[in-house]
Amino acid sequence: MDNRFWLGREDEAAIGPEGERTGARAVLRLCGELDLEGAPALAEAAGPLLADGSRTLVLDCHGITFCDSSGLNTLLNLRQRAADSGARLQLARPSASVRHLLRLTHTERVFHVVEDSVEDTVEDAVEGAAGPAATLDPVGDASAPRP
To answer: In what order do the strands lie in the sheet with 88-92?
Structure first.
């Protein structure tokens, strides 16, 4: 993947009532251009997150500098894949470019858009998925190796 589009990944898992780990949420921090070249990278990165049982997939869109119809199509496909797997897709802090495209295409009501920081969104998602006593286990960021 080139430098035009960067994906950072963070995962947090909740501990269920029987002590089992449940996929509470995953976050992809998007940066760069979400276009014909960048959209496949997003689809590839998000697929395993939806398959591993994450209940909420948060796409932090604050760093997207450009989004075209290919990017929108990928977002719509991910939304449908999330719904099919019983998960929820959230667009956090959409950039002006993303917000403009959503308005132009009348798709802003299709997505769950949150204006809060990802950290605030995470607390809401984890509490909603596993109750207020959930224990979080941060996994880290895709740009740095895990210790």
So the answer is: 5-15, 21-34, 56-67, 88-92, 112-114
Nearest-angstrom CA–CA distance, 83 and 62: 23
121, amino acid identity? T
Token pair 């395993």 is at which residue? 48
On whether the CB atoms of residues 45 and 76 are closer than 8 A, the answer is no
- DSSP alpha helices (H): ranges in the chain? 39-51, 69-84, 96-104, 118-130
- 59-88 pLDDT tens trace: 999 999 999 999 999 999 999 999 998 999
Given phi > 0 = left and psi -120 to 50 = alpha, else beta, which region is 117? beta
Record the pTM.
0.70
